[in-house]
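INFO batch 0412 | record 1 of 1 | parsing
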Amino acid sequence: MDHGSENRSSGAWRTPAYVVFALFCALVLAAFSRLLAAAVAALALAPLVIAAMRATRARLGEVPPEFATSPETSHAGMREFASLPFDNPFDPAHSDLPLDARITMAAEASAEFSRGASVLYLRTPPNVDAAGVLAILRAAVRPTDHVEMIGPGEIVACLNLIRDLSNVDGVIARLTQRLHDNGWPQGAPPRFGRALYPMHGYSGADLIAAARARLQPAAAPAARRDGARKEAAGARPRRQGVANGR
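INFO prediction complete | emitting tokens
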């Protein structure tokens, strides 16, 4: 049984019922004390005000952690999930669905836990083994994330249960370092594009398109020369990896 779904469904009617009951009490108390009735009415409307503030922050991409209501959504549990606390859209059972549809499902499910979902887009250059990069990224992300190749040299990652863009940037930095450690050419660092639900789109297709459009700019020629000099000087020994012919 999915206890999380049961708790969320029961909570869906408790809040409106509380508001209606409190407003009814305020109307009754108005006959005796307007001040007391106003106080009760304010308490009745408080959940609606809080919900509106949270929805506004979510639209701005600031997705705060939800108040702890169960072990599944406690602060400690929200930091890192060993598995998704909802039906995994990337499970082989859903392999018949297109990737964008599965990303939409993951993003909407993450929002139910007061989190967002992010899509990363990476285009590998011709001199880099895309299949090798795919394997490295799959090994580097969390068990709750998903990485897939959508075309020649085009890789998309879906990061579930993300707080905000600072979390996404931290993941990109970690993945970039992992790729460099495994032989990505130093002169042309990997360029990730990123998009966050719901800031950049409400569907998987929109998020993929937004991430593709937000690819990081290519390194300037001077930066590429500096990287090439460091590589030639052997500033950091690297294992044979994703770069072809290395």
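INFO post-check: The two ends are 52 Å apart (CA to CA).
INFO record closed
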